[in-house]
Specification:
This is Aldo/keto reductase. This protein has about 400 residues and is of the alpha/beta class. Helices cover about 40% and strands about 10% of the residues. It has an 8-stranded parallel beta barrel with strand order 3-4-5-6-7-8-9-10, surrounded by 4 helices. Strands 1-2 form a two-stranded antiparallel sheet.
Length: about 400
């Protein structure tokens, strides 16, 4: 394993982290006696494998059901000084409730402190206010820090780049968990801002939200040769020194193996990546057109600026991925989450686009004339039964 300084925390962070949202027994809290022995054995084998390969950062959340409770049966068996343990608690209107949830996390983990506490989901103006207001959740987190129950405070986010940058600009956080990978590089401005504030940068779900790369389409496999799409994406992310760690949402001990192939390639990233990046760009241009590839995002409105709350940028992005790289399964999964994702994945689908007048909100787009047609076509291509977030399933 290789390690990077995790910003001003000065922690030596492994390039891969063990994310805790896929090996738990249930997404809901249940009594310990209900957790199956098979589930617990698998979780413990996964943690043991992580530690064996040098992945000593174990990341979970209060919202991950039984994850914390199950981790509490194995983490105390390790030398505490060897571990970097992170949990996350969602902002609350009542900051006392935020503290209560954190105390439950600590009790479940059976630890005296966590190294990293994230305010989980500063995604919009409301969660920003709940976090940052006087007497809010950040203030509670800082009190927990003063009591020795938390070493460093960060935030995780699925929000718009401007919200992430606004939160970073407060200079109140030591690190950030955010989305950024090859197919979605929109948050680079936030990563650059984090670098200026010497914050740690943790990339959320690069293999799942980054394209379901554990079951890639053949077209993407061919384009990423000689690497697998998963290793390509890992290498792309880690070739940027501003990125410190990638989350592996492991569901079994074997889930680390493909990722670990990236480590021996890092010194040759400047040699390996350019031909793959060129092929991917050429494929997008060949299927979508050069003008579209270079300008499609220009002048697009936010969902709150669009009739019906339609998330035009996300829908067109998913269309691009499905057409250029055959990432249709991924695009369908994300598209059908629209309308039920709340502030974690805001906006609506385009299933009623023929009833909406988009002329005003598209006035700044060079593609205003064709976008309504493309949205309707995308709905036919990707539309289906609505999907709930994993935590709601």
């Amino acid at each position: 394993m290789q390690y990077r300084r995790f910003g001003r925390t000065e922690l030596q962070m492994p390039l891969f982290s063990c994310g805790g949202m896929r090996y738990q027994y249930k997404w809901q809290d249940v009594p310990a006696w209900q957790i199956s022995q098979d589930s617990q054995r698998n979780l413990e084998a996964t943690i043991n494998r992580a530690i064996e390969v040098g992945i000593n950062h174990i990341e979970t959340a209060r919202g991950y059901g039984t994850s914390e409770l199950q981790l509490g049966k194995i983490l105390p068996t390790y030398d505490r000084d060897r571990l970097i343990v992170q949990t996350k608690v969602t902002p609350q209107e009542n900051a006392k409730e935020f503290r209560r949830k954190f105390e439950k996390s600590l009790a479940n983990l059976k630890l005296d402190y966590v190294d990293l506490l994230s305010l989980h989901g500063i995604n919009d103006a409301e969660t920003f206010h709940q976090s940052m207001r006087p007497g809010g959740c950040l203030e509670i987190a800082q009190k927990l820090q003063a009591q020795g129950k938390v070493r460093f405070i960060g935030f995780s986010t699925h929000g718009a780049t401007e919200t992430i940058v606004q939160t970073i600009a407060t200079n109140q956080f030591d690190y950030v968990n955010l989305h950024w990978y090859y197919i979605n590089q929109i948050n680079w401005e936030a990563i650059a801002a984090a670098r200026r504030h010497d914050m740690g940068v943790f990339i959320i779900s690069p293999s799942h939200k980054g394209g379901l790369l554990y079951k890639p389409p053949q077209k993407l496999v061919d384009l990423c040769q000689p690497l697998s799409p998963m290793v390509f994406n890992d290498l792309f992310c880690l070739s940027h020194s501003q990125v410190h760690t990638l989350s592996i949402g492991a569901s079994s001990p074997q889930d680390f193996d493909e990722h670990l192939k990236t480590l021996e390639l890092l010194e040759r990233a400047d040699e390996i990546l350019p031909p793959i990046l060129a092929r991917l760009e050429q494929q997008a241009i060949a299927t979508l057109g050069e003008n579209w590839v270079k300008t499609w995002r220009t002048g697009l409105p936010k969902p709150e600026e669009t009739p019906g709350g339609v998330n035009i940028p996300v829908i067109l992005w998913l269309r691009n991925l499905a057409i250029a790289y055959d990432l249709t399964e991924y695009a369908k999964m994300r598209y059908n989450l629209l309308g039920s994702g709340g502030h974690w994945f805001p906006g609506a689908k385009a299933d009623k686009i023929d009833k909406l007048d988009l002329r005003s909100c598209l006035a700044a787009s060079p593609h205003a004339q064709q976008i309504p047609r493309l949205l309707a076509e995308t709905d036919k291509m990707l539309g289906g039964q609505g999907i709930k977030r994993l935590s709601q399933q």
